[in-house]
Automatic annotation (TrEMBL):
CDD domains: SRPBCC_7. This is SRPBCC family protein. SUPFAM superfamilies: Bet v1-like.
Length: 157
């Protein structure tokens, strides 16, 4: 089984968003907000009331294809960093990771970096989609997130 080829297994994108880190983080750490900015057009909905507060939490989302994913939070620093590993319900995570890092520049500007890391992915059925996830997909999420944060539209979905 060879999972390594010429496609990068860690892709990332970053940009400066004209909003403070707390506003931006609220859009990321509240799963019910995620379908609003998902640049992969993969998320249909997520129940409200799942705001992430720490490592070890699990939140669920429903994909556009109707399947449910459990996301296991593996990194968390309020207002600065959050990362999760998706899994099928009741299963161990397949090994890929979504990470968001926020670096305040000043009171109204934040550098946001979005990373997709599939270097530990073990489920071969997911390799095709993982290979297709590019920095452009990540930039699309950043751009959609920026529109919401810069307009102050951080309320309920």
């Amino acid at each position: 089984m060879s999972t390594h080829d010429d496609v990068p297994h860690v892709v990332s994108a970053s940009r400066v968003i004209a909003a403070n880190a707390d506003q931006i983080f609220e859009l990321i750490a509240d799963p019910s907000q995620q379908p609003r900015w998902d640049g992969n057009d993969n998320l249909a909905e997520a129940p409200t009331g799942q705001r992430v507060r720490g490592v070890g939490e699990v939140f669920t989302v429903t994909l556009t294809i109707g399947e449910v994913r459990e996301n296991h939070v593996v990194e968390f620093e309020e207002g600065r960093r959050i990362a999760w590993r998706p899994s099928d319900p009741g299963r161990e995570p397949a090994g890929h990771l979504w990470r968001w890092e926020l670096e305040p520049i000043d009171a109204e500007h934040t550098r946001v970096t979005h990373t997709y890391d599939w270097s530990r992915l073990t489920d071969e059925n997911r390799f095709t989609r993982a290979r297709a996830t590019s920095a452009d997909n990540l930039r699309a999420s950043l751009d959609r997130l920026a529109v919401l944060a810069e307009s102050g539209d951080v309320g309920a979905p």
